[in-house]
């Protein structure tokens, strides 16, 4: 056997291992790796981390983040961003609480009216974002950054920075801490939101148009897709989902707060990107966004159990987001190489 043949024999297994690893990474993304690392790390730091009660508590506490991430996911899918999702949460929280506290009828009617008002406010905020992006052709980053300031200002103006109290106890008992079959109602609502969004994006023509517009707006227009209506649908859906999350958060807090949601834009974008949703639009699944949000919740819960300062949690979230973006770019390049037969 010549020296060249020996090199080829030894290089072939190594190359096949690298190729196999690259294909696995393209298929599953970075999230499973991060989840395994988080589970091992936090289970070693706290004996209570992997208990059923703690997992249920973490899911209940982060259900509003899961739902808000689904809203961010829709906008990312359409090729945009929504930096106003935290401000929408604050404005919806205040609007819901004010609508409930002003009612003199039965608690049930007060809760229903408050929720309807909150969802309508969220949809109106989403509509404003959509009109700015689709009609005025304003960059989504600039548009939602501007409306975030507007929505936050409105929430503070309505409350003068004071929490809105006087909500029916039934509101918190039902949506904040209620359970069905031993599972929190907020978890069921997050699951329902994910299923409904999956149906919209997978089984309906408007949902498929969101993928088309996010992937290539020009090609979508040439195919007869109404880009204006598709973008409006994406942003209104995001506003509605942010509103549902805000209602759940308000139920847990038992007050309407104008100062909540500041970290939601970073958390939701990080969750979606970590889950494998492309920042360039047109690529991603509902399950990806949900699992990404669950991962963010796992990290926060694990750090709380380990008694790590909340400021460090913000640092970790930022670092994980940066790593996820790098992994997303690497995954895209590897996918092109794999499909071209180079890896």
UniProtKB/TrEMBL annotation:
The chain crosses the membrane at residues 20-44, 64-88, 108-129, 141-162, 174-201, 231-253, 259-279, 286-304, 310-327. GO terms for cellular component: plasma membrane. It is found in: Cell membrane. It comes from the Bacteria. GO terms for molecular function: transmembrane transporter activity. Keywords: Cell inner membrane, Cell membrane, Membrane, Transmembrane, Transmembrane helix, Transport. It holds the Pfam family BPD_transp_2. It is a multi-pass membrane protein. The keyword RNA-binding does not apply. PANTHER family: ABC TRANSPORTER PERMEASE PROTEIN YPHD-RELATED, ABC TRANSPORTER PERMEASE PROTEIN YPHD-RELATED-RELATED. This is ABC transporter permease. It comes from Nonomuraea cavernae.
């Amino acid at each position: 056997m010549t020296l060249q043949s020996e090199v080829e024999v030894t290089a072939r297994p190594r190359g096949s291992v690298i190729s196999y690893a690259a294909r696995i990474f393209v298929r599953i993304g970075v999230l499973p790796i991060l989840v395994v690392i988080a589970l091992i790390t936090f289970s070693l730091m706290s004996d209570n981390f992997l208990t059923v009660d703690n997992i249920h508590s973490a899911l209940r506490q982060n259900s509003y983040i899961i739902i808000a991430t689904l809203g961010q996911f829709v906008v990312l899918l359409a090729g945009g961003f929504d930096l106003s999702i935290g401000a929408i949460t604050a404005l919806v929280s205040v609007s819901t609480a004010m609508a409930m506290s002003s009612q003199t009828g039965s608690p049930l009617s007060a809760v229903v009216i408050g929720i309807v008002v909150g969802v309508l406010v969220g949809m109106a905020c989403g509509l404003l974002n959509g009109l700015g992006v689709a009609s005025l052709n304003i960059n989504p980053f600039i548009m939602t950054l501007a409306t975030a300031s507007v929505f936050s200002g409105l929430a503070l103006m309505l409350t003068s920075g004071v929490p809105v109290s006087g909500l029916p106890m039934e509101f918190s008992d039902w949506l904040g801490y209620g359970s069905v079959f031993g599972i929190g109602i907020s978890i069921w609502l997050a699951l329902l939101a994910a299923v409904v969004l999956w149906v919209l994006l997978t089984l309906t023509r408007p949902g498929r148009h969101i993928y088309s517009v996010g992937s290539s707006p020009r090609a979508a227009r040439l195919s007869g897709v109404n880009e204006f209506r598709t973008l409006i649908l994406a942003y209104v859906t995001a506003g509605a989902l942010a509103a549902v999350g805000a209602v759940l958060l308000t139920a847990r807090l038992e007050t309407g707060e104008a100062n909540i949601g500041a970290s939601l834009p970073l958390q939701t974008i990080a969750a979606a990107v970590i889950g494998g949703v492309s920042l360039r639009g047109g690529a991603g699944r509902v399950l990806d966004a949900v699992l990404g949000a669950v991962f963010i919740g796992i990290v926060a819960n694990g750090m709380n159990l380990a008694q790590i300062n909340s400021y460090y949690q913000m640092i970790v979230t930022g670092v994980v987001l940066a790593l996820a973006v790098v992994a997303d770019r690497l995954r895209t390049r590897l996918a092109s190489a794999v499909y071209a037969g180079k890896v």
